[in-house]
Amino acid sequence: MTAAQYVxxxxxxxxxxxxxxxxGLPAAGGTVRRxxxxxGDNLDALTAEDIAVLGEDVALRGVVDLRAPFESPRAAExxxxxxxxxxxxxxxxxxxxxxxxxxxxxxxxDYSAMYALMLDNAGPGLARxxxxxxxxxxxxxxxxxxxxxxxxxxxxxxxxxxxxxxRSAIIADYLATGERLDRVRAAxxxxxxxxxxxxxxxxxxxxxxADSPPRTPFKIDPRAIHGVLDVVEAAEGGVAGFLRSHGAxxxxxxxxxxxxxxxx
Length: 264
Prior knowledge:
By secondary structure, this protein is α/β, with parallel strands linked by helices. The strands form 2 sheets. The protein has a 6-stranded mixed β-sheet with strand order 1-2-5-8-6-7, covered by helices on one side. It has a 3-stranded antiparallel β-sheet with strand order 3-4-9. A hairpin with a 2-residue loop joins strand 3 and strand 4. The two termini are 17 Å apart. 43% of the residues are buried.
């Protein structure tokens, strides 16, 4: 599968701009089931109509929030009403979204290097997310960070890879976020928690006016996700071995594969 062939399962909302269902991606022996795993940007500005879509159309049951404490993540007041369980599992972020003094400058905008650093400490959290997905009635689950690109991209790539999803499909899904970057960037620019993005953009001369959203750090580089997949696939025992080394069990991995893959 190529990016040109991939048709993302967008779920169009007013208050979030990068939400999609991963159903339909090709995998070994089948395809990804719809309404199991969704990915997206933050849910802070959802409207009543958006909530109805997630509750009634999607029948959402789990939300995994990958944001750092700096971003003030919290379970929405409407989660209990819809029977949604919230898991906060902050994933290391070096892209300057959640920490204005992050190490992004040290790797000079090299997303492959940044993703590798993020992955270094992400293993235990990824294993806990896997456990959340298979232990209990938590699917469909929506997994998100701020923009739904970097932390979400790494997590989704590992979860799809261990389920046997084709690498080309994982890359195509990662690249799909590029279709919504302008909307996500504008929304983050209006969010007080991310005002440091505006300051960084102004300091670097990348913004073009007070009403223009910042142009950094939004870069889509497929080499970054290829690098993540290279690392986890090279672990002893492959991606499953990587997750087992950080606390996942063989039963959880098998359960996840059965849950997310619809056999031919």
